[in-house]
Amino acid sequence: MQIRRRQLSGVSLPLSLWAFLALGLSVPAGASDFLILDRPKGRVQYAEMFSVRPTTEGALVWLVEDARHPDLLGHLSTLSLLEIDCGKKKVRTRLEKRYTGSRAQGRSTHMGTVNSDWRDGTKGASPDRILVERLCPA
């Protein structure tokens, strides 16, 4: 199965999107292309809501994690494909790519098929829980 990710057009983003990313505001999924999920130390994680693809069990969605400073290998961002099982309220990472630029742009320096174990998507205030609540019908 091939999953395509929409490329951001141009280098500059609208001022409203910069304000959204900088301030960590979240709005209903239908009103924005991005949903801030977490802001751990020096990083921001957000889901690209325009990338949501329904599956028979739930959905697939791209998650981006941007760092303020590059890691030891020069990566500034990570792009992960998450699979959500709405019936079991579980999440797993299917694919991961690392990039030298922010917003999953620049040179892709690492790409790996992860297929991680399923994680509980109902615990705490985790990014997984936010996605399960947004993408799975009640």
Compact description:
By secondary structure, this protein is mainly beta. It contains two helices and seven strands, in the order H-E-E-E-E-E-E-E-H.
Task: Quickly list its features.
138 residues, 13% helix, 39% strand, seven-stranded antiparallel sheet, single chain, mainly beta
How would you describe what is shown here?
This protein has 138 residues and is mostly beta strands. It is built from 2 helices and 7 strands. Strands 1, 2, 3, 4, 5, 6 and 7 form a 7-stranded antiparallel sheet that branches. A hairpin with a 4-residue loop joins strand 4 (77-85) and strand 5 (90-99). The longest helix is centred in the N-terminal third of the chain and has 9 residues, at 15-23. It is globular.
How many strands? Answer: 7
Q: What is the H/E string? A: HEEEEEEEH
Helical stretch tally = 2
Tell me the helix content.
10-25%
Overall pLDDT level: 77
- Rg from alpha-carbon coordinates: 15 Å
Q: Structural class of the helices, strands and pairings?
A: mainly beta
How far the N terminus sits from the C terminus, by CA atoms, comes to 28 Å
Outline, from the CA principal axes? globular
The parts where pLDDT drops under 50 for at least 5 residues are 6-31
Largest sheet: 7 strands, antiparallel
Strand content: 35-45%
